[in-house]
Amino acid sequence: MSYAPAQPPGARSIAWMVHVYTASGAAIALFALAYGTLGDLRSAFLWLSVAMFIDCTDGTLARRFRVKEVVPEFDGARLDDIVDYLTYSFVPIVIAYFGGALPAGIAGLAVGAVPLLASGYGFCRVDAKTPDHYFTGFPSYWNVIVLYFFLLDTAPLLNSVVLLAFSALVFVPTRYAYPSRNPAGRWGTFTLGPLWSIVVVYLAARLPDTEPRLALASLAFPAYYLGLSLWLDWRVRHRQAPSG
């Protein structure tokens, strides 16, 4: 007869609290959506920043308190994907449309539908997150892309081209580094990432006023992330290529 390992007192309560912490991102998505559709871009993106902070920290908490072992009947990864689809994809695209970053009318809705469909595919593919800590295909950072539309005050036509281009990249099986877990480039990621986050939150807090020069300078970190990911993808493919 086998017995389940004894759990420390309060372990299940703590594990459920971690799940609630993850789920709170869905409630925050509602706040961001409400403010965004009312035209309050500053509040909308500040709420999305809170959601991103939760997403960057809940996995660490889940591993620290072994929630998968303590509450095996609940799928925290599925919950995380649902919340991420809301905060990284659906809400930012809606804000882009109502905020005037996309063309008005049916044309803007059609453009906005493309990244939502692409992200639906990206989130549901079985290799969306690889065992060696990569995302497969562009990892649906629409919240970041849409924020830069407003920070740089770019034209709806250009924004549409950008959304369609990155939507296509969702289907290209390029590896993108999982920032909080992939050890490659960790020094740069963990140094530049927090600095970038501070600058971006500052810029979001100033909306609808913009500081284009600072916003352009802050693109250095996304450019670093994309460059690092492309290099890592090339390195992995090179190692996997048959010799001779």
- Point out poorly predicted stretches: none
Termini distance?
A: 54 Å
**Which geometry do the CA atoms define?**
globular
Q: What's the level 1 CATH class?
A: Mainly Alpha
Percentage of residues in DSSP E strands = under 5%
Extended strand count: 2
Biggest beta sheet attributes: 2 strands, antiparallel
CATH topology (level 3) name:
Four Helix Bundle (Hemerythrin (Met), subunit A)
Structural descriptors:
single chain, 244 residues, mainly alpha, Four Helix Bundle (Hemerythrin (Met), subunit A), two-stranded antiparallel ribbon, 10 helices, 71% helix, 2% strand
Tell me the layout of helices and strands.
Blueprint (H helix, E strand, L loop, with lengths): L10 H27 L3 H24 L2 H4 L5 H23 L6 H20 L9 E3 L5 H11 L3 H15 L4 E3 L8 H21 L5 H7 L1 H21 L4
How would you sum up this structure, described in words?
The protein is mostly helical and 244 residues long. The protein has one domain: Up-down Bundle (Four Helix Bundle (Hemerythrin (Met), subunit A)), CATH 1.20.120. It has helices at 11-37, 41-64, 67-70, 76-98, 105-124, 142-152, 156-170, 186-206, 212-218, 220-240; strands spanning 134-136, 175-177. Strands 1-2 form a two-stranded antiparallel ribbon. Helix 2 runs antiparallel to helix 4 (76-98), helix 4 packs parallel to helix 6 (142-152) and helix 5 (105-124) packs parallel to helix 7 (156-170). The mean pLDDT is 92.
